[in-house]
Amino acid sequence: MTGMTWTVAPEPYDSPAALALWRAYYTEVSDRWYLLHEGHRTDPAELERAIAATTGAELAAPKGELLIARYDGEPAGSAGVRLLDAETAELTRVFVPEGMRGRGGAPLLVAAAEEAARSLGARRMVLDTRGDLVEARALYARLGYTETGPHNDDPYAEHWFRKELPGTGAVSGRPAP
């Protein structure tokens, strides 16, 4: 279809669109893990507890931001950024629902998250992901992230990535002094 466009903008972590995307994201990654390791989907009660336990409050100002992508006005993806320290931001919750994949939304979300991280003062972005999330690992590599050693002790993290954020501190295209 022609005329369909992506937009990406900050949104409160507890907005209806953000909550719906968080539920879809968590359901997908949890089900993928359970299907791979235990041969069944996530227990519904466990899923509800986990979704409720992770509010996303760390993705709010002054040390974070949640971005929502819309495709032709409809919520179609998310990405979060949170400062780990004064110069390091973590990229998290990058998600585009299956029916919207392949339309260019994920690179737009990551680029917007990088800009948000720069605006928070970060000079680098880090992230973690699992081995079975091959699409995510391919996306990050394609966007210039390099695999590194662990930066956290998340029990589900199997791959860690890092990217220096070019342009941090630059003014009008000139390097910072």
TrEMBL record:
All residue ranges annotated as the N-acetyltransferase domain in the record: 20-166
A single GO molecular function term of this UniProt record: acyltransferase activity, transferring groups other than amino-acyl groups
Pfam families (alphabetical): Acetyltransf_1
Keywords of the record: Acyltransferase, Transferase
InterPro entries according to UniProt: Acyl_CoA_acyltransferase, Bact_Acetyltransf, GNAT_dom
SUPFAM superfamilies cross-referenced by the UniProt entry: Acyl-CoA N-acyltransferases (Nat) (SSF55729)
Name of the molecule in the record: Acetyltransferase
Lineage: Bacteria, Bacillati, Actinomycetota, Actinomycetes, Kitasatosporales
